[in-house]
Design a protein that fits this description.
- This protein is of the alpha+beta class.
- Helices cover about 35% and strands about 10% of the residues.
- The strands form two sheets. It has a five-stranded mixed β-sheet with strand order 2-1-5-3-4. Strands 6-7 form a two-stranded antiparallel sheet.
- Helix 2 packs antiparallel against helix 6 and helix 3 runs antiparallel to helix 5.
Length: about 250
């Protein structure tokens, strides 16, 4: 396939950016999107040009580092991560726009790389459980009802990629924060900090540059792991419960 690429280039956080045009030939339908970017960078390096900077790590849809906006959609046209998106979903001669996550909380570092440390700070404020030091407890020492386990596993699938923030017209992080809160609140081990967790994580989220949630639903549509929109309502219930208990 031959592709016409328009890619966001920005040399640094304080520098102006622009969409640069590239032509790339010989793209295999079996390539992943990141393989295609690697091929472009090989071409650019051979031409003596600066390669495109983009984030990636596991390339298995697990770490969440790879996210970019493709033709206006977070992670592209399929409900998967950018690294798991294959070029068979595009056609010969297509024009593809590639941009970084667009959100106030995710400042651009370079090209397609953004700083997502705001999400790390939200997790750091309460996304943990208290456990005694020493050896690991037996696997069945704390029974967990099946519905609670299913709820926890559903929300534990969040990989913190930030697609929900990038897709939200307000740049809100409610779905991400809700996934972390509801995951731990569903388990007995997570109920020690149940109240402080939701208050601290929502408080930190509000202190960062995330926008307010108006429940447009774009976050759940873009989520590659299928975190449901109902998670936000569940977190709101946790928050109101914590507020009432505090007062």
């Amino acid at each position: 396939m031959k592709l016409h690429l328009r890619i966001w280039r920005q040399p640094g956080p304080d520098a102006p950016g622009h969409m640069a045009r590239y032509e790339l030939d010989g793209v295999s339908p079996d390539m992943s999107f990141l393989d295609m970017l690697d091929t472009l960078n090989e071409q650019l390096i051979a031409e003596g040009c600066e390669p495109v900077a983009f984030d990636h790590d596991c390339r298995e849809g697990i770490c969440g580092a790879c996210g970019v906006v493709i033709n206006g959609e977070a992670h592209g046209p399929e409900r998967t991560t950018t690294c798991q998106l294959h070029m068979r979903h595009f056609s010969d001669g297509d024009t593809i726009d590639v941009e970084p996550w667009r959100a106030a909380a995710f400042p651009v570092v370079k090209d397609l790389v953004v700083d997502r440390s705001a999400m790390d700070r939200v997790i750091g404020s309460g996304g943990y459980v208290s456990v005694p030091t020493g050896s690991a407890p037996d696997a069945h020492a704390t029974p967990v009802p099946k519905p609670d386990a299913d709820e926890a596993f559903t929300h534990a699938e969040c990989i913190g990629c930030g697609a929900c923030v990038a897709a939200c017209p307000n740049g809100a992080a409610m779905l991400f924060t809700a996934a972390k809160v509801v995951h731990l609140a569903s388990l007995p081990q997570g109920r020690v900090e149940r109240e402080s967790r939701v208050l601290d994580m929502v408080g930190t989220m509000d202190e960062e540059s995330f926008g307010g949630c108006t429940v447009t639903g774009e976050c759940a549509t873009a989520c590659p792991k299928g975190i449901p929109l109902t998670s936000i309502a569940a977190m709101n219930r946790e928050y109101m419960r914590a507020v009432r208990k505090r007062h």
